[in-house]
Specification:
alpha/beta, Rossmann fold, Arc Repressor Mutant, subunit A, 3 domains, 9-stranded mixed β-sheet, 3-stranded antiparallel β-sheet, 15 helices, 45% helix
Length: 366
């Protein structure tokens, strides 16, 4: 990837109405980020709106702030971008990194759980992370309190990766500042947020999807029924990862979520050996591949048909979320055609793509 293409990738993903999935669709249509920068405004115009691509100065500022933070920038499509993550259409376009990118070449196991974890769970997590790491697996977690912190501490010597939901130059929580510094030297810290981004609850589901997508196996130690760890486990299952759970006392609310995962089919694990055996059993299976938009050709289209389809879609959609698969069924056309029409509508700001493969109409105020 040359510098010109990197700058245009940054400009695209910094543009209003363009997220990772829209970026994937644009590359399917225009082949390169540079082509998409030129072509995307025309698609929005077809739906009656003007799309202003982010200026070159925006990309220059992000690159400068990355250097200022003593971090590196990894762009989707570059050689150093993690291959397992790249297969997903919602993979971050930009990753800001501190530490050793070579750790991404390892087979990775995610360890997640409660922030208010019990003392025993914290001790167990650190020990398991150490033993799993010694079996040559990298450990991935979210650099939060509790289970995350214990997982990183246990795997510092063997290879640990922290995915954070704020800028690469922002330490959160502050109590992890020493651990953050150690991981920047001997491990790896990744973020898709531009430098100086403050932590926010809305950032953590995005952080969790990266953890789930990177790891071939995900262990949940303690988790309440409604917790971010269960969201990570759900994401991991949908992305072809092996989901494992450590059972807990049926009277402890911190174990309600893990015990439910086991009821729902997650692997019950009671030792690091169980985890390693499960991971080794997947070695000879074909790698999981999501069906990426990048592999589709979205340039051979009938523009009149797409315009008519876009009008039909706007009649079907409401301001409440609609599953895109259900939308495709209602339109009675190919999934490819619907995605092309949605791309134009999204660029024009008429619809918004939501998590979980859903879409909704936006209220346009001119």
């Amino acid at each position: 990837m040359d510098d010109h293409e990197i700058v245009n990738a940054i400009r695209l993903i910094s543009t209003a109405n363009i997220g990772p999935i829209t970026y994937s669709l644009l590359l399917s249509r225009f082949k390169t980020a540079s082509g998409a920068v030129r072509g995307a405004p025309e698609l929005a115009q077809r739906q009656g709106r003007t799309l202003k691509i982010a200026d070159r100065s925006v990309a220059d500022r992000i690159i400068a702030n990355t250097h200022k933070a003593n971090a590196s920038l990894v762009v989707r499509g570059s050689e150093s971008y993690p291959k397992r993550l790249a297969q997903f259409d919602d993979a971050p376009v930009l990753l800001f990194a501190k530490g050793h990118l070579s750790l991404l070449q390892k087979d990775l196991v995610a360890m997640v759980g409660a922030r208010n974890a019990s003392t025993n769970a914290i001790r167990l997590t650190a020990q398991w992370a150490k033993e799993i790491g010694e079996a040559d697996y990298g450990i991935v977690s979210g650099l939060a309190r509790g289970i995350d912190r214990a997982a990183h501490i246990g795997s510092l010597a063997t290879g640990t990766i922290g995915i954070i939901g704020c800028g690469i130059d922002v330490i959160y929580p502050q109590e992890n500042s020493d651990l953050f510094d150690e991981m920047a030297k001997s491990g790896l810290i990744l973020s898709e947020m531009v430098p100086a981004t403050k932590p926010s609850p809305r950032n953590f589901p995005s952080r969790n999807r990266i953890i789930a997508a990177l790891a071939k196996g995900t262990i949940v130690t303690e988790a309440a029924i409604r917790s971010g760890s269960l969201i990570t486990a759900k994401e991991a299952n949908e992305r072809g990862s092996e989901v494992m759970a450590i059972p807990g006392a049926p009277t402890d609310p911190r174990s309600f979520g893990t015990n439910q995962l086991i009821k729902d089919g997650a692997h019950l694990v009671t030792s690091p050996k169980d985890v390693i055996d499960i991971m080794q059993s997947t070695l000879h299976e074909p790698p999981f591949h999501a069906p990426p938009f990048q592999n589709q050709h979205l340039d051979d289209i009938d523009e009149v048909m797409i315009t008519n389809l876009a009008n039909d879609i706007m009649k079907i959609l409401t301001f409440e979320a609609t599953d895109i698969d259900e939308l495709i069924r209602q339109c009675h056309v190919s999934a490819k055609a619907v995605q092309i029409a949605l791309l134009e509508l999204e660029l024009a700001g008429h619809v918004e793509r939501l998590a979980g493969n859903r879409i909704c109409k936006l209220l346009n105020i001119d």
